[in-house]
Each structure stands twice: as C-alpha cells, then as structure tokens.
Amino acid sequence: MPPLTERIPEPELMEAADQAAAYAAADFESANSAFIGHLDTLLGGRPLVGPVLDLGCGPADICLRVARSHPGADIHALDGSEAMLACARERLGAAPELAGRIRLLHDTLPVEMLPARHYELVMSNSLLHHLHQPAVLWDTVRRFGRSGTRVLVMDLFRPDSTEAAAALVRTWSGDEPEVLQRDFYNSLLAAFTPAEVEAQLAGAGLSMLEVRVVSDRHLLVAGQLP
Ligand SMILES: C[S@@+](CC[C@H](N)C(=O)[O-])C[C@H]1O[C@@H](n2cnc3c(N)ncnc32)[C@H](O)[C@@H]1O
Questions:
Q1: Which residues, other chains included, contact 140 with Cβ-Cβ below 8 Å and sequence gap of 6+?
Q2: Contact, 166 vs 222, CB < 8 A?
C-alpha cells in the first residue's frame, strides 16, 4: 500500500466536454448541501448582502444554492473552463429568476481584475486541489477581500494511501460513470493534507482562517478577515 506522502497534481482546468458534462450530471447533493450548511454556520444566521465571489464555480450548483437562500447577494462566478461554463449557462437558463444575480466570468487564476473591488464572501468548492500553485487562491482571497470579508473554502484532502483513495471512490462514486470515478481518484491524489493547507495559509498571512476536517474526504477553511 504505497503511502501518499506527496500529492500527484492533475490538470488544472476541466476542459474536456465529456468530463465537464459528467461532472455537471453527477450527484453532489451531500457535499453541496454540506457546503451550504457550513456557510450558514459561518454567517451565524445573518443574510449575505453584496458581491460574492465563487472561484472555480464549475456548473454553478453552489452559486444557485447561495443565490436562492440570500436574495441580497450578487454572485460573480469564475471558471477557466469554457466547457464547465457551458454547463453552468445551461443550469442558469433553467432558473431565470436567479440567473440575473449570477454573473459567469471566463478567467483563470491568478486574475488581475474582477468586477468588484472587494467581496463580502469569497467561496470555493473543490478548486484548491486543482491548483499547481495553491498560493494563487489565497492571494486572490487577500486581494479581493477586506476587513470583515468571510472566507469559505471546501476541498478534498489527500488520503493516506492509494487504497484508501480507491475505497473512497467506491463508496462515493461507485455508481457514477468511469470518467467521473477516474477524476475523483485523481483529485484525491492531487489534494492537500490539512497540515499542508495550514502551511499555505501561514505563508499567505491568513492564519486567522481555521482548517477543519469535516467528512471522510473533505476539509474546510473558514473564517473572517480581520
Ligand atoms: C472540481 S470542479 C468544482 C466545481 C464547483 N466549484 C463545484 O463545487 O461543483 C473545479 C473547477 O475549477 C476550475 N479551475 C481549476 N483551476 C482553475 C484556475 N486556475 N482558474 C479558474 N478555474 C479553475 C475547473 O475548470 C473546474 O471547473
């Protein structure tokens, strides 16, 4: 059982049409509703009002959930993959009452400019493990956050072994298409450990954010900028 002492990076962008379509069609109900639960906890019952940034938005399921529960939020949703944004556009088309508050941005981190100077919330789900230079995520949090900005980043964490990764794939995506199972396995191997994420935050001057393991495969980075 080879130990996974180092990550094995995967391509950053999910650009293949079949890959994006399989991801968009997959059932992420448990992870995505957990993300919204963590957001509720972070907000402590207060409504979100103002611009929200979603980094690596993919098919925009989380954007739609946030837009639905926070009518005062305007969401800027960024992804570098046109194939993923096509899936997002289709999904927004089915929810025209929310789509007006979700603006899709085709861009790749690191970015120089965004539509808002600062955001009330910077959020991201399942982006960090894609990044070859994870500092670009934390730099974006710092540049486009300000005092009081909330930060919520959820991602996979790297299991101890390839066998543990394969077992997670069987448990959580055993019924999903081959392309999705392969992506999930590769993502687990590309993911960071909680200790590695803590080191990234320390390097970025973001040690005020808390890192917690929140499921058998997810870690959460949450907090508020001082
Ligand atoms: C696993 S998907 C997660 C999508 C979505 N956040 C979700 O939870 O369903 C990761 C997304 O991040 C995008 N991505 C990866 N690296 C990126 C980068 N450097 N800049 C912008 N988007 C990136 C990929 O194209 C992909 O759509």
A1: 53, 55, 109, 110, 111, 122
A2: no
Q: What domains, with CATH codes, occur in the chain?
A: 17-224 (3.40.50.150)
Name residues contacting ligand 1 (CB within 6 A).
12-14, 28, 56-59, 61-62, 78-81, 84, 108-109, 125-127, 130-131
The DSSP result for 52-119, as a single string, is EEEET-TT-HHHHHHHHH-TTEEEEEEES-HHHHHHHHHHHHT-HHHHTTEEEEE--SS-S--SSSS-
Rounded distance from Cα 59 to ligand 1 centre (Å) = 9
pTM: 0.97
Mean pLDDT by 10 residues, the chain (226 residues): 84 92 91 97 96 98 97 98 97 93 98 97 98 98 98 98 96 91 96 98 98 98 98
Q: Report CA(222)–ligand 1 centroid distance (Å).
A: 19
- Distance (angstroms) between ligand 1 centre and the Cα of 126 equals 7
